[in-house]
Amino acid sequence: VRFAEDTLLTPTEQDVVRRFCAGLPRLPELPLKVAIFGSRAKGGSGVNSDLDIAVIMECGRSEQVERILASVAFQAGAPYREGDSGIHVKPVPIFSEDRPKGFFHAIQSHMEPVWTRPR
After folding, report:
1. How far is CA 97 from the centre of its chain?
2. Euclidean distance between CA atoms 58 and 31, whole angstroms
3. In the prediction, which pLDDT does 49 show?
4. Considering the entire predicted model, what is its pTM?
5. Which residue, 64, 68, 78, is CA-closest to 25?
6. How far is CA 73 from CA 21, 55, 96, 98, in A?
7. Order of strands, edge to edge, in the sheet holding 50-56?
8. Parallel, antiparallel or unpaired: strands 33-37 and 88-94
9. Which pLDDT tens digit goes with each residue over 19-68?
10. Which of 18, 77, 82, 93 could form a Cys-Cys staple with 89, CB 3.0–4.6 A?
């Protein structure tokens, strides 16, 4: 996991992202890339802001992948769910058929890649 030098994520948020990426081997296949986006990535988050994590998949839509990502996200954020941090991890799987569509293009220029599948 690598963050941009000018990342706006706090050390706590970075730890959550590391924990999330550590759970990726639970997936049936590793994603192409993982990137953060949204208000926490832009530095404009509030107390109730999600930590949005785009997970770029090479496969087609899969409920199994969605369930595993939800579980990985829940476990990654568990140490920080209560108290002042209140980090809620929101994985956003982007499957192969989603990439040519509007949502992916809308967030693509605002994503900070943090993990890339090893070659």
Report:
1. 19
2. 7
3. 81
4. 0.90
5. 68
6. 9, 11, 21, 21
7. 88-94, 50-56, 33-37, 112-116
8. unpaired
9. 999 999 999 999 999 999 988 888 777 777 889 999 999 999 999 999 99
10. 77
